[in-house]
């Protein structure tokens, strides 16, 4: 019985930590998507392309942003 009570005691803390991590991930993805929009605008991409980069980066996060940043390097060469 003692183990069950201890398990119930820690459950709310675990849920709060899970919630905090999800909120942080959401905020990070929104920030990355905004930065992707800015980069795509700086590259002179069309509004449709910028929208696609925004959506892709919001869903995938850093890997998509990394591809977009490499596009900038390839345009310089």
Automatic annotation (TrEMBL):
Superkingdom of the source species: Eukaryota
Database matches in Pfam families: TMEM254
Protein's name according to its UniProt entry: Transmembrane protein 254
Organism from which the protein derives: Plectus sambesii
